[in-house]
Specification:
By secondary structure, the protein is mainly beta. Helix content is 0%, strand content 42%.
Protein backbone atom coordinates (compact mmCIF):
# COMPACT_ATOMS: atom_id res chain seq x y z
CA UNK A 1 0.00 0.00 0.00
CA UNK A 2 1.12 3.55 -0.75
CA UNK A 3 -1.22 5.42 1.62
CA UNK A 4 -2.77 5.08 5.06
CA UNK A 5 -6.19 4.23 3.61
CA UNK A 6 -4.71 1.26 1.70
CA UNK A 7 -6.64 2.39 -1.37
CA UNK A 8 -3.79 2.05 -3.88
CA UNK A 9 -0.97 -0.45 -4.26
CA UNK A 10 2.27 -0.78 -6.19
CA UNK A 11 2.03 -3.87 -8.38
CA UNK A 12 4.81 -6.46 -8.46
CA UNK A 13 6.81 -6.91 -11.65
CA UNK A 14 9.78 -8.66 -13.20
CA UNK A 15 12.31 -7.35 -15.69
CA UNK A 16 14.54 -9.19 -18.15
CA UNK A 17 18.17 -8.09 -18.45
CA UNK A 18 21.27 -9.48 -20.14
CA UNK A 19 24.96 -9.21 -19.26
CA UNK A 20 27.81 -10.52 -21.43
CA UNK A 21 31.54 -10.07 -21.00
CA UNK A 22 34.85 -11.47 -22.08
CA UNK A 23 38.52 -10.98 -22.78
CA UNK A 24 40.51 -10.82 -25.99
CA UNK A 25 44.00 -10.03 -27.20
CA UNK A 26 47.57 -10.32 -25.89
CA UNK A 27 49.32 -13.14 -24.16
CA UNK A 28 50.89 -12.95 -20.75
CA UNK A 29 54.16 -11.07 -20.95
CA UNK A 30 53.33 -9.38 -24.27
CA UNK A 31 53.25 -5.60 -24.69
CA UNK A 32 49.92 -5.52 -26.54
CA UNK A 33 47.80 -5.90 -23.42
CA UNK A 34 44.51 -7.64 -22.80
CA UNK A 35 41.13 -6.15 -23.74
CA UNK A 36 38.15 -6.75 -21.47
CA UNK A 37 34.64 -5.97 -22.67
CA UNK A 38 31.22 -5.85 -21.07
CA UNK A 39 27.79 -5.47 -22.67
CA UNK A 40 24.77 -4.96 -20.41
CA UNK A 41 21.17 -4.56 -21.60
CA UNK A 42 18.55 -3.67 -18.98
CA UNK A 43 14.76 -3.95 -19.34
CA UNK A 44 14.99 -5.82 -22.64
CA UNK A 45 11.22 -5.90 -23.17
CA UNK A 46 10.96 -2.15 -22.42
CA UNK A 47 8.25 -2.71 -19.79
CA UNK A 48 6.70 0.32 -18.11
CA UNK A 49 6.88 -0.40 -14.40
CA UNK A 50 6.97 1.50 -11.13
CA UNK A 51 10.56 2.23 -10.13
CA UNK A 52 9.72 3.54 -6.67
CA UNK A 53 6.85 4.88 -4.60
CA UNK A 54 6.47 7.90 -2.37
CA UNK A 55 4.46 6.60 0.56
CA UNK A 56 1.83 9.04 1.86
CA UNK A 57 2.42 11.68 -0.88
CA UNK A 58 -0.17 14.41 -0.20
CA UNK A 59 -0.90 15.09 -3.91
CA UNK A 60 -1.49 11.37 -4.50
CA UNK A 61 1.36 11.11 -7.00
CA UNK A 62 2.68 7.96 -5.36
CA UNK A 63 4.34 6.23 -8.29
CA UNK A 64 7.65 7.10 -9.99
CA UNK A 65 8.49 5.42 -13.31
CA UNK A 66 11.42 3.09 -13.82
CA UNK A 67 13.96 3.72 -16.57
CA UNK A 68 13.12 2.25 -19.97
CA UNK A 69 15.38 -0.01 -22.00
CA UNK A 70 19.05 0.90 -21.64
CA UNK A 71 22.43 -0.38 -22.81
CA UNK A 72 25.98 -0.15 -21.52
CA UNK A 73 29.15 -1.04 -23.42
CA UNK A 74 32.43 -0.98 -21.54
CA UNK A 75 35.96 -1.56 -22.89
CA UNK A 76 39.12 -1.76 -20.79
CA UNK A 77 42.73 -2.30 -21.80
CA UNK A 78 44.93 -3.97 -19.20
CA UNK A 79 48.68 -3.64 -19.80
Amino acid sequence: PVNDANSDFAAGHGLLSLRLGGRAGGRSGSRSGMWEWLLRLDNLLDRRVTGSVIVGESNQRFFEPNAGRSALLSLRLNR
